[in-house]
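Figure 2 data, in text form.
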Amino acid sequence: MSNRCDTVLAVFRQIEPVIILQQLASALFDTALQMVVKDRCANATDTGTDISTEDSRQKAMSDFYMTYNLITKLTPILPALLLARLGDRGWRKVPIVTPLIGYLLSRLTLLLVIVLHGPLQAMWAGAALHGLAGGFCSYWAGVMALVSLGSTAKDRSKVMMRVELLYGTAGLVGSLVSGHLFQLYSSIGQGTVLVSVSTLLYLVCLVYSLLLLQVKQVPDKEESCGLMGNGTGDVPAAPPPGGSNKVNLALLFAGGVLYDVAVGGAMEILVTFEMKEPLNWNATQVGYGNAAGFVIFLTSFLGVMVMSRCVSDVTLILIGMLSFGFGIYFMAFVTATYMFYLARSLMLFALIPMPTIRSLLSQQVQGSSYGITLISLQVAFKVASLAYTPAYTKIYQSSLDWFPGFIFTLSSVITVLGTIPISMVGCRLIQRRRYERIQGD
C-alpha cells in the first residue's frame, strides 16, 4: 500500500498534470475570447459606414487582435529572460509558476469585462498583466527545460513530442466542450460560466505547481556529445569540429523563426477568418474548429513515433513543415466548413517541427543552459511577431475585397523558405558523420 501511494505521489509531482490543467483552461478561454470579440465588434459596427458591415466587422476584429497579440508578445520579452536566468540558477519552478499568476489575472479580466459589461479594450490590460508575468514565452520554455532535465539526449525528441501530445489532447477536450459551456444560460452574461471554469482551472493549476510539482534531473552522459546525427538515436562520440555547433544553432533558429512566422501569422488571422461569411461560425463551431487544430497534436505524435525509426530528426522537421505548407495553402480557398476540416487534415504533421527543433537545440548546450537557450528561441519568436502581426493584419484587411485567403498563401511561401536552413543543417550533419568515420578509422 505504501509503495502504491509513493507511485501515485511520484506521478502527481511530475510536470504533466500542470500541462493538462493549463491547456484545458486555455482552450476554454480562447473560445470565450473569440466569441466575446465577435459580439462586441458586431454591436460596434452594425450602425453603418460607407463600407459593408461584414468588412467593417472583420477590420474591427482584426484590429483588436492585432493590438492584443502585440501586447501579449512584446511585454513578456524582458520578464521571460529574467525568469529563465532564475531557472538556470536552480529556481526551476519560477518560470512556470510566475506566468500562471499572469494567466489567472488575465482570465479574471475577461470575467470582469463580461460581468460588468466593461469595454473590450480592457482585455489589453489583461494581456499586459499576462505578459509582465512572463506569458506563454516563459511558461513553455520553463516546461521544456524541466522536460529536458528529466530525459536523456537519446529520448528527448520523443519525450518532448509526448508532452506536445498531452498539451494537444487537453486542448482537444477543452475545445470540444467550450462552445457548449459558452451557451449555458447565466443571468450575469453569456460566457460567464465558461470563463469562470477556465479561471478556476488556472487557480487549481497554480496551487498544484506551488505545492506538488517537483524538479527531477536525469544524469545524461551523452548530453555534451553534440547534435544527434540520425533518428535512430546515434550520438556523435566527440564534439563537432570547427565550431559547427554555433552554425547549426543559427540555422535551427532561422528555420524555427521562419516557421513560427508562417504558423503564428496564419493562426492569428484564422480566428477572424472563421467569423467571416461564408463560414460565420457560432460558439459550438468555434469550439469544434479549435478542437480540429488540437487533433494535429495526436497525429504529429504518432508521426514521430513511427517515422523516427527510419528517418532523421531533420527529415522529420521538413515533413512537418511541408505538411503545414500544403494545408495552409488549401485553407486559402476554403468557402465551406467541410473544406476547413479538409485543410486541417492536410496539416497532420504540422506540430512536429517545433519540439524537434527544441530537442536539437537542447543537445547543443549543458543542462545548466537549457533555460536560457530555449527562452532565447521563444524571445526570437516574440521579436519576429512584432513585425508579422501588424503586417499580416494589414495585408488581410487590404485583401478582403479581392482574395481574403491571400494571407494563407503567403504563409505557405514562408514555410517553404523555412525548409532551406533546416536542409542545410541536414547536409552539415551528413558531412560531420563522414568526418567522424574518417577520424575513427
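Caption note: The mean pLDDT is 83.
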